Amino acid sequence: MEHIITALIPIFSMILIGYFFRQIKFPSDGFWPSADRLTYYVLMPSLLVYKLSTASLDSLDGLNFVLTGVLGILALLVLLIVVNKKMKTNGASFTSVVQGAVRFNTYVFLALCASLFGDEGLVLAALLITFAIPLINIICITVFALYVSDSKLTFLSLLKSIVTNPLILACFVGGGINFIGFTLPVPVEKIFFILSAAALPMGLLSVGVGLELKGMSASIKELTVSTLFKLVLLPIIMYGLSVAFGLNVLAMSVILIFAAMPTAPSGFVLARQLGGDVKLISSVITLQTLLSMFTIAVIIQMIVK
Asked: Could you list the residue range(s) of the whole structural domain that residue 240 is in?
């Protein structure tokens, strides 16, 4: 239990510090959007390239691991659609329910895996997000196209959003360097190392800055469904699939941590752009981030036992 607390407290403390910085407007209102871009386009990709290019991938059972994650997400989506037939949620709200249930916070996920399982866990996490991010983007944008009539979307824009995603590109670059056996020059490797050291702290601070504790007036029913599906049902589904695919303890642990992640702040941007329920997704993001402090602790405790 002490190991769990040691891993969780620094991570969620960084999120709360980020929220505190926003409240006192430190260093300024204009700083954090720029910091977010720096983290997303430079720092986090540097971390992924550095870790994947230097990792040992020989003993990695990637196929069953990735299949577990992909099938778990798809199973959750099917259940959401079935439940929505009974709930009859309006289209805009349902898109936010789906985004809240299937998206995950990449920064918290990578930080937890690194804290709990070291580089080996971080490499598994990077492998999973390489496939999960494109799948989730396709799911969310397809749901918008089906449930929101004024959704402005083309196949080319969807494809562009996937192939230009800096985190996906970084995973392919780092994995490719490792696969061909190329060794980065020492100065280049040191640059990636220095940049990667700032990635997770900045990412976690940004999560805190994005929290909206005021005005959580979204529909209780939709908010509850999205949160229960994400923080309770998805971990159960992933556990069952992990057992069925015979994943080892480390792979199962990373999958369960992935399943327990709160939804991603990027869902708010997509809802605003494509006509989703902005108030609902904002409430979902905040509630899940706060509740995940407890649900993640419970899941990690179960893993340890």
From this structure: 2-208+218-304
For the chain of 305 residues, list the mean pLDDT of each consecutive stretch of 10.
71 91 90 91 93 76 90 96 88 92 94 90 92 90 79 68 85 90 91 94 89 70 93 96 94 95 85 80 88 87 73
Total structural domains within the chain: 1
**Measured distance CA(260)–CA(266) in Å, rounded:** 17
CATH value at residue 20: 1.20.1530.20
SS3 152: coil
144 burial type by CB count under 10 A (0-12 exposed, 13-18 middle, 19+ buried)? buried
- Looking at the domain assignment, is residue 26 inside a domain? yes
Contact between 231 and 54 under an 8 Å Cβ cutoff? The reply is no
User: Angle between the 91-102 and 106-147 helix axes, to the nearest 10 degrees?
Assistant: 150
Measured distance CA(175)–CA(167) in Å, rounded: 12
Asked whether residue 280 is domain-assigned, the answer is yes
**Residue 213 domain-assigned (yes or no):** no
